[in-house]
Amino acid sequence: MKKVGLFGGTFDPPHKGHLKLSQTVLNTLNLDEIWFIPTFNPPHKKGAVATPEQRLTMLNKLLEDDQRLKVSTIEYELKGKSYTYETVKRLCKEYPNTMFYFIIGGDMVEYLPKWYKIEELKRLIQFVGVNRKGHHAVNQRGVLMVNMDEVPVSSSEIRKDIKEGRLPQGLTESVLHYIRENELYED
């Protein structure tokens, strides 16, 4: 059975921290692949700054050097607000011989009980919580925990740096070039 990690997010923009997290989980749990799932319309946020197409292009640029890291456009196909349960249900139907591991930040583990259809979701996938050094998540029954080194980068800080005219840290050259070429996050 194939073992695939699912890493959902807005990825606005995607950065080296996303790469480090995915590679850490991939190697720690000996997964075959990790599929990044950019949200089309995140239900928990006001909205992305970059368009869905721009975020998808940046994500493909970020992942271009590691064949084990792929992009799934399933939430773009589903349109509307993205709920993990609906996405996972469809993936399980399309890939019945795949064991899915859903990756979340360690800080999100304590919020799992509030997720939409969480009990049904737990029957479909294995949750993986990623702890960064210096942060300790609340342990939830049935969540595998993986530890990784701190990567001091965030999408919101990158957007802020660009808006304020500073050179952002944590982007690959190809993603930074795309952002500059398309004048993203400047206003």
- Quickly give the CATH architecture: 3-Layer(aba) Sandwich
Overall tally of structural domains: 1
Structural class: alpha/beta
What is the C-alpha radius of gyration, as a whole number of Å?
16 Å
Biggest sheet overview:
6 strands, parallel
Entry keywords:
Rossmann fold, NadD/NMNAT, single chain, alpha/beta, 187 residues, 7 helices, globular, six-stranded parallel sheet
Description:
The protein is of the alpha/beta class and 187 residues long. The chain has one domain (2-150): 3-Layer(aba) Sandwich (Rossmann fold). The protein is built from 7 helices and 6 strands, in the order E-H-E-H-E-H-H-E-H-E-E-H-H. It has helices at 16-28, 52-63, 74-78, 84-94, 118-124, 155-163, 173-181; strands at residues 2-9, 33-38, 69-71, 98-105, 126-132, 143-148. Strands 3-2-1-4-5-6 form a 6-stranded parallel sheet, sandwiched between helices. Helix 2 (52-63) packs antiparallel against helix 7 and helix 4 packs parallel to helix 5 (118-124). The chain is globular, with a radius of gyration of 16 Å. The N and C termini lie far apart (47 Å). The model has no long low-confidence stretch (mean pLDDT 90). Residues 6-160 form the Cytidyltransferase-like domain. InterPro entries: Cyt_trans-like (IPR004821), NadD/NMNAT (IPR005248), Rossmann-like_a/b/a_fold (IPR014729). Pfam families: CTP_transf_like. Pathway: Cofactor biosynthesis; NAD(+) biosynthesis; deamido-NAD(+) from nicotinate D-ribonucleotide: step 1/1.
